[in-house]
Structure formats: structure tokens, C-alpha cells
Amino acid sequence: xxxxxxxxxxxVPVILRRAETLxxxxxxxxxxxxxxxxxxxxxxxxxxxxxxxxxxxxxxVSEGDRVATLCWNHYQxxxxxxxxxxxxxxxxxxxxxxxxxxxxxxxxxxEDKVIIVDQVLLxxxxxxxxxxxxxxxxxxxxxxxxxxxxxxxxxxxxxSGDASxxxxxxxxxxxxxxxxxxxxxxGQPKGVLYSHRSIVLHSMLSAFTDGMAIGEAxxxxxxxxxxxxxxxxxxxxxxxxxxxxxxPGPHLDPASLLELYETEKVTLTAGVPTIxxxxxxxxDANPGKYNLSSIRCMxxxxxxxxxxxxxxYQERHNLRILHAWGMTETSxxxxxxxxxxxxxxxxxxxxxxxxxxxGVAAPLVEMRARNENGIVPWDGTxxxxxxxxxxxxxxxxxxxxxxxxxxxxxxxxxxGDIVTLEANxxxxxxxxxxxVIKSGGEWISSVQLEGALMGHPAVAEAAVFAIPSEKWMExxxxxxxxxxxxxxxxxxxxxFLEPHFAKFWLPEAYETVxxxxxxxxxxxxxxxxxxxxxxxxx
Length: 538
Ligand code: AMP
Prior knowledge:
28% of the residues lie in helices and 25% in strands. The protein is α/β, with parallel strands linked by helices and 538 residues long.
């Protein structure tokens, strides 16, 4: 027997409609590139977003077309977040920290039809614009002068759309709404395609009480970029609830963020450990300078949050760090580290130990781990690769026949993270099965760097691996074996790599070695290298 509830599809326009209806006067705040503050209401945001939907339709964007953004966190990006899925098209956020080569590959692979670029990011766009095929380039002006000929200004595009004539998408909730490429650990980056349904369900559950406990009264500042897993879904979650949203624009240095937290009375903020480490240093060096009493939660994820950092914030500044785990493929919320009733009674030391773990699976997400002996017991010591499933977990990559075995035959996603699971469900990430390096929250592929280095005429072999860094968490280091009779300087190697990689990808250090340690099947043994250079401080 079928239930008799409405077949009401969970679509992104439903989120916007609620904000517009119930929270029209709440505000959205943006720090602009010139550091001035822009402030407007959900009413204005919704109108402009619908205008943009209508204008994009006029431009020829139809259902399923990809519209790319190369943008910082700001109010126009929020408008685009709703305008593109609002016409059944796909919002494709581009990571502005990637190299021009990667961006070229990603735009071409996604076959983006339109790209919307911040005027301040045109120098980056110039580096790959001739290698991509898009029918329109739209530029979000920042008042620093005219935009180049041939491009459409964001404001003039907007004014060509009539919000009143526009009917929002109300089709199948399983239709694609957004996409984000994950940096390939092997091979090329892969496209993750979120559906309207997955976004709505993820928005609902991200707010749940045992997690971030977000509500209408919150003032939320996502430091995490809107180009990285939709800023962890916060723009959707916050719009659904009508929270005040604060966007930092391109100003992500600790002083700018601290000032914004204080003046806007932010209650919840989210970012990677590197950001929080920088802020902790400033707070420690300037006792009493900032009044952060409004902040009730600082969400951290993307890399493991060091226990010392969690303790430092709590003990010295009375600020609560909330640790979560996720991936581009998991929308991203997978697990979150609230404390159970029992743990709340435990000694502070025990609580800190737990708070440094990645927490328990969010409702509707299921987890298990597997090693060579099968599914591992939840004993807190046996390690295995984490597998997850749930309504906002990827089931396949976009247009990628070779998914590298990431999806199991019985419908789970293999994360590549090595974990232990405790009897109470808390997971702890022990390592990654692949050897990517995560610097300041961004992936660096050791394999790509090695491939390039080994193209240098003086280099016989090169292995790239992570060394610890106080500021960036990890930095790449390269061990190289020289060809006989050859020599090379660090400057020459960097100059050789520079045209192909983002600057932050360049190795922090190089070490010449006689040979690269290898596994039984001839692969570079990164674990040995990491051990050898464990005390090398970047
Ligand atoms: P991305 O898809 O770029 O968001 O990266 C996802 C990866 O980041 C995961 O597979 C983990 O390896 C890592 N990661 C995310 N959150 C955490 C965390 N809280 N602790 C440790 N590693 C994390």
C-alpha cells in the first residue's frame, strides 16, 4: 500500500521561497574587495537571484546546462547559488586555487556553457581563457574600471532579466543542481554531481541539534570557500533557516576575520584547521583585544584538528571548536563530533581526546570500515578503509567510466580514509590510503608533481610527500635522485614547475637522495620518506 503523503519534490527553489516568505528582512553581509561592507536583505537577494535566473534563460541556458563560477564568498555568489539550480541548470563552482591547467581540464570536462568570474580574478582567468570553450563570460564588477570588451557585466546581465516572469524549477528532485570537482589523487579531477534532493536533505541535517544546531537566530560566517563543497552546504542551510549570513570576500587573513566576527556578532563560523591555527596565534598574542563572546561554535574539518588547538581555544579563549569529517563526495557532512550524554560526564581530558576525533555519523549516513580481512570490528583499534552510504553520498562520478573502484558492488562509497571505529560509533581518521598532501586545506597531488619533476633533464627519480608545517598543516617535500653527472639548483627546479602548478603546490624543500625507497611492487614508499624527514619543519 502506498502512503498518502504529497509527492512534494525537495528542490532548491523551495529553500529560497521560504527565506523570501518568512525571513525577507534578515540580512546578508559581504566584505567587498575594497574592504567596504555591503548589506542587503533576503528580499533583495531573492529578487536579484530570480532576475539572474530569467536573464540566464534569455542567454540560452537550459535545464542541465552547466554554469561555472570563479568567485570568492560574497552575496552575488549566493544569488548564483540559487539562480542556476532555479532554472534546472547546474551550478559548477571552480576552485580558484587550482592551476590554470587543472581549471582548463575541469571546465572542458564539465562542458560549462557560461562562466561567471570575479573581476579581481580576471588575471587568473586570463591564464586559461583561450583553452576553454564557453559561450558567455560574465564578470562581477568591483568598480575598479571597465570590464574587458566581449564580456558581459553581471549587473547588466541581471537587469536584462524580469523576476516577475520567471517560474522556478519544480521538476524531479533527483535532477542535478550543483557540481564540484574533487582533485584527483590519481588521474584527473573527478566531478561530483549533487542533486536538488541531496542538497535539501543535507541542509536539513546539517542543522541538527547534535551537530551544528543552527537556527534562525544564528549569524554564520563561512570561511570555507563557496567553491569547496558548496562552503560545506552552509549557504543552502542558512538560507533555508533564514540565518544572517556574513561573507568575508577575499579577505581571509586572521585580523580581517576577527574584526568581522566582532562587528557582525558572528555566532557560528566554519573553516579548515590552518585558518583556526592562524587565528589562535593572533588571539594568543593579543589577549583581550577582540570580543568574541558572540561565537558559540567554530566548525573545523577538511584535515584533522589537532587536539592542542581544540584545547587552546577552549582553555585560553573560551571558544568551542566542533570537529567534523566529510568529503566533496559526501556533500560534505559525514560525521560530526558532538559529545554524548555519557561523555559530557567524563573528565575534561577524556572529552578533549574525543573532541579531536571525527565524531559519529550524521543521521541518515551509515558507516563501516573494511580491511583485507573484511568489515572491521568497532573496537577502536582495528584500522580499515572507511565506507559510507546515505542520501547525500555520491553514487558515481560525472562522465567518468573509470571510477577507480570507489563504489562497492553493494552500494557503498569507498572514502580512501583509514579509520578506527569505536563501540560508541566515534571514528578516528588515521591516515589516507592515497598519498596526497593537504596544504592549508587544499589538496596537492604528489603524483602530478613527481611526474613533472621527472621531466627535468637532471632528474632521474622524484618522490613527493608531506612534511609537517605549523602554518599549513602539511607542505610538499621532494626527494630527488639525480642523473649521473648532473646537478640542479632549487631555483631551477621551481622555475621548471612554475608554469604548470599553482604557486602553493611548489615543494617546500628538496633533498637529493641516492635512491627512493620502494615497495615490493616497485612503488615509491612514501611512508619511509615521511619517516625519514619527519623532523623537517616547513
Ligand atoms: P575534500 O574532498 O577535498 O573535502 O577532502 C576530503 C578528505 O579530507 C577526506 O577524505 C579526509 O582525508 C580529509 N578530511 C576531511 N575532514 C577531516 C577531518 N576532520 N580529519 C581528518 N581528515 C579529514
